[in-house]
Amino acid sequence: MGGGKFRYELKYVCSDLQLIQMEERLKRILKPDIHVGSEGFYTIRSLYFDDYYDTAFWEKEDGVDIREKYRLRYYNRDVDMVRLEIKRKIGNKIQKDSCHVTKEEADEMITGNWYQAAHSGNRVVQRLFFKGALNLMQPKVIVEYDRIPYVCGEGNVRITFDKNIRSISSVEDFWRSQLPARPIMPAGWHLLEVKFDEFLPDHVYRTLQMEHLTQTAFSKYGLCRRYTTKDLPGG
């Protein structure tokens, strides 16, 4: 894969109360991400690809230690700023390669026109082309959620609260502003993610310590596939 830096990624499921308490703690030591608007969050919409055999889904279900995900993503429903991302996970470390693509290029990927994508000079696009052409990659599910992000320069720390995580099965509607969506978590529960480079500063680590907050293996893609696809377990 490409040369993106490996980072640690830790995930925790938290309640409304835990989220409020944790955010109050973090506000004292971290800064909000500069991309957050007046509402205090931004909305992420991702379209995940998988192959004919649903390899990415089943590798997660089977606990495979090394796996990859492919997705198109844009923020706050701004379809002029679409990114293609390839995320590789090894244990609790992640590596991400990404690049900007046009809406037209994204449409070629969504419709499976891999010949057209092959002509891109970008290595990230070319990687999805080869994977798509060889393994019959197709868009599988849309994942959408609202993110509250905080950052810290020391350790390149990024802590995010992902709220209202929802799935959308109509992948052909990826560009539509408003879509009917299905929540994938019980009401009042959210996801806390902690990402950092080689170390987590002590003052951040101490702030994250909270009773009943335990690390978990959590896949937005896996849960959304399970709840929106009839031929998968739980569908």
Structure notes:
This protein has helices at residues 16-27, 55-61, 103-110, 114-117, 123-135, 202-208, 220-228, and strands at 6-15, 31-32, 42-50, 66-75, 82-90, 93-101, 138-152, 157-168, 182-183, 189-196. The chain has 235 residues and is an alpha+beta fold. An 8-stranded antiparallel beta barrel has the order 1-6-5-4-3-7-8-10, surrounded by 5 helices. The radius of gyration is 18 Å and the shape is globular. The mean pLDDT is 89.
Number of beta strands = 10
By CATH, the architecture is named Alpha-Beta Barrel
Work out the radius of gyration: 18 Å
Q: Which CATH C-level class is it?
A: Alpha Beta
Instruction: Give me the strand/helix succession.
Output: EHEEHEEEHHHEEEEHH
- Biggest pleated sheet: 8 strands, antiparallel, barrel
In oligomeric terms, what are we looking at? single chain
Distance between the termini: 32 Å
Task: Give a nutshell description of this structure.
The protein is an alpha+beta fold and 235 residues long.
Features:
single chain; alpha+beta; mRNA Triphosphatase Cet1, Chain A; eight-stranded antiparallel barrel
Write the layout of secondary structure elements.
Blueprint: E1 6-15, H1 16-27, E2 31-32, E3 42-50, H2 55-61, E4 66-75, E5 82-90, E6 93-101, H3 103-110, H4 114-117, H5 123-135, E7 138-152, E8 157-168, E9 182-183, E10 189-196, H6 202-208, H7 220-228
Antiparallel strand pairs: 1-6, 1-10, 2-7, 3-4, 3-7, 4-5, 5-6, 7-8, 8-9, 8-10
